[in-house]
């Protein structure tokens, strides 16, 4: 889940220098890591020509902005914005006309990690110890984890460690913290610094619509053809990881080489990303009302959202059938052929 942002909808937002291309064939999208192993379906879909085959040009808007992503949907500059659950619910509470149309990640990237050889095996074991937070935003996830065993954040000491891999590694290795509340990139950093990590995250916190595609409700029908084409290409890219992860790795080595300068770190990043990105639902990207229903009380209790909202007001599966309408066998053949041609 990306860093939480405050949604300010009462102020008109004008963003300049963002190119707008023809809407009949272009999907303008904003997400936190535009081309990355973290969101490999985009890179895979491009490598295999799936977006091009759908007649879609993907226009990635600059993501390093302090402006809430939902604002780009409201002012028409983005067709799709990748939002986390907090951003989504806060936007709905603020009256934004948006719909969640596709669940990009259905497993939480957040977790509670301990040293692989640690004596700590469960959240219960952390009571009375000092737990490290990668950043203060990881406090709410730790609170939720403690809640699962009937405890609260007051039952542990916490210290914010920062995102630097060596600092995290030293804190765990030297026993300054019993565990770390962080996310997938943090486990990669720890492993890269010679600290193997074991996750003790409560099972009930693993299912989460960590990142989703949101669209403006006022343009759902107007842009149906382009949106369905984009999401079908994305689903194909996701599916490749289920049947040919070796091909996915090679596409990423070529597509985002900076993330693969350290081969071991790149592969670990991919393994974690596959675990988050490949849908657990029968229909890829499908919307999980029960998961949202279970998640919102936790967000409310941690203060991340002001009020719960009815999922029926924003979950809209209007594109899901089309996003899954493709020949799986053909995708498997495409991936195998690409890997053979790109050893």
Automatic annotation (TrEMBL):
Ranges for domain SsuA/THI5-like: 37-247
Domain of life of the organism encoding this protein: Bacteria
N-terminal signal peptide: 1-22
GO biological process terms on file: thiamine biosynthetic process
This protein's UniProt keywords: Signal
Keyword Signal annotated: yes
Family matches, as PANTHER family: 4-AMINO-5-HYDROXYMETHYL-2-METHYLPYRIMIDINE PHOSPHATE SYNTHASE THI11-RELATED, RIBOFLAVIN-BINDING PROTEIN RIBY
Protein name (record): NitT/TauT family transport system substrate-binding protein
């Amino acid at each position: 889940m990306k860093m939480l942002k405050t949604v300010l909808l009462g102020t008109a937002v004008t963003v300049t220098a963002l190119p707008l291309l023809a809407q009949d064939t272009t999907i303008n999208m904003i997400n936190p890591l535009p081309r990355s192993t973290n969101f490999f379906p985009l890179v895979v879909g491009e490598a295999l020509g799936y977006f091009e085959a759908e007649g879609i040009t993907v226009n990635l808007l600059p993501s390093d902005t302090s402006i809430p992503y939902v604002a780009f949907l409201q002012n028409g500059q983005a067709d799709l914005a990748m939002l986390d659950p907090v951003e989504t619910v806060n936007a709905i509470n603020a009256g934004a006309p948006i719909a969640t149309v596709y669940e990009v990640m259905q497993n939480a990237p957040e977790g509670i990690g301990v040293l692989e050889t640690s004596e700590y095996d469960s959240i219960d074991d952390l009571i009375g110890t000092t737990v490290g937070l990668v950043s203060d935003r990881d406090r709410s996830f730790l609170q939720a984890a403690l809640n699962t065993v009937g405890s609260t954040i007051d039952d542990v000491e916490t210290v914010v460690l920062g995102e630097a891999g060596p600092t995290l590694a030293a804190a765990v290795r030297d026993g300054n913290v019993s565990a770390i509340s962080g996310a997938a990139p943090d486990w990669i950093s720890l492993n890269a610094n010679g600290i193997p990590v074991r996750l003790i995250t409560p099972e009930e916190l693993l299912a989460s619509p960590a990142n989703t595609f949101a669209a403006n409700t006022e343009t759902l029908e107007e842009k149906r053809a382009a949106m369905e084409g984009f999401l079908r290409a994305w689903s194909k890219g996701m599916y490749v990881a289920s049947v040919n992860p070796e091909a996915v790795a090679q596409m990423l080595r070529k597509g985002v080489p900076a993330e693969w300068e350290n081969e071991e770190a790149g592969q670990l990043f991919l393994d974690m990303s596959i675990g988050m990105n490949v849908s657990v639902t029968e229909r890829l990207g499908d919307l999980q009302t029960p998961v949202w229903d279970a998640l919102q009380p936790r967000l409310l209790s941690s203060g991340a959202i002001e009020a719960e909202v009815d999922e029926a007001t924003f979950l809209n599966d209007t594109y899901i059938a089309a996003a899954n309408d493709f020949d799986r066998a053909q995708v498997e053949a495409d991936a195998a052929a690409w890997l053979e041609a790109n050893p």
